[in-house]
Amino acid sequence: MSDITDEIGLVHREVGTRRVASEEAGSVLLRRTFGTGVADVWDAVTSPERIARWFLPVTGEFRVGGRYQLEDNAGGEILECLPRERLRVSWLIEPDSGSGFSEVEVRLAPDGDDRTVLELEHVAVIPEEFRSQYGPGAAGVGWDLALLGLGWHLAGGGLSPQDAVEWQASPEAKAFVARSGEEWGRAFAASGADPETVTATTVATIAFYTGE
Q1: Where are the alpha helices (DSSP H) in the chain?
Q2: What pLDDT, in 10s, does the model give residues 56-67?
Q3: Within 13 Å and on the Cβ side, how many CA atoms surround 191?
Q4: Burial class (CB in 10 A: 0-12, 13-18, 19+), 209
Q5: When you count CB atoms within 10 A of the terminal residue's CB, does the N or C end of the chain come out lower?
């Protein structure tokens, strides 16, 4: 496994907004290059067996229009699947509620024969009270952790589910979360957010993830 500081620096982060029907949605975008081919990365992000090894167990009907459910996490519908290029899904904590807008899109592009650029974009309409308290880092830190796990997996490493739970309470994990939260604060500031909001939401997000 690579150094945590190195892992943080491998990801490009952006914060934005867009209109979804009559509502304003927030977006976080992560971009990272992995040292393996598109076929391998695509398999890692779409194969249920491999997803369980770096993220969470997942069940469902794995086809466009099918439903999926991550264990104790989000679920939704598979909206679009263009093999080795793009996967788009709805992403809801209560997928059967029929309310809310939240979508995740993963895009892949080759960078030579043995490197792949992955972009992950999460667009969601967030309740104002949650957005004003935590800002974009609430989603961004979680996706940083996911890409950390994916990177370890693609490099031939990774943690067992039990080890992953223990790692999340470790000083190394808390240091990773703190750095991730700070980087999302910088991305939030770059999007035009005022400094006081950036500071407050960054502190709240780091505390939420570390439990401190």
Answers
A1: 4-9, 38-46, 48-54, 128-134, 137-154, 161-168, 171-190, 195-210
A2: 999 999 999 999
A3: 22
A4: buried
A5: C
